[in-house]
Design brief:
- Helix content is 30%, strand content 4%.
- It has 106 residues and is mostly helical.
């Protein structure tokens, strides 16, 4: 599958991008290569009974429909200078008069 220069220009118009002729040509080639690669991946045949690994090999098996909590290795309170009531506390920007606000706002 390939993407034409005209399709690139239509996408650029929708995304409100201005592309030079060279940029649109390069983008067309790049996106066409990506789509060819995706087609190649989609056509791969995994032998019957073999598992197609997508995660780390040590990932635990989960039963269908089972959602295990994703525990954080380090909670935000360990790395945030100020964390209160589940929020990161940051100083107000000077444009809002926060230069003298040392307490921040949650």
């Amino acid at each position: 599958m390939s993407i034409t220069r005209e399709e690139i220009l239509q996408i650029a118009t929708l995304a409100r991008l201005r592309l030079t002729d060279s940029e649109s040509e390069d983008l067309s080639q790049d996106l066409s290569q990506i789509l060819e690669y995706v087609d190649t991946l989609a056509s791969l045949q995994v032998p019957e009974g073999e598992r197609f690994e997508l995660g780390p090999p040590e990932a635990p098996e989960r039963k269908a429909g089972q959602m295990a909590p994703d525990a954080m290795a380090h909670p935000p309170t360990d790395s945030a200078p100020d964390f209160r009531d589940g929020f990161f506390v940051v100083p107000s920007p000077p444009s809002l008069g926060g230069a003298d606000d040392s307490g921040g706002s949650p």
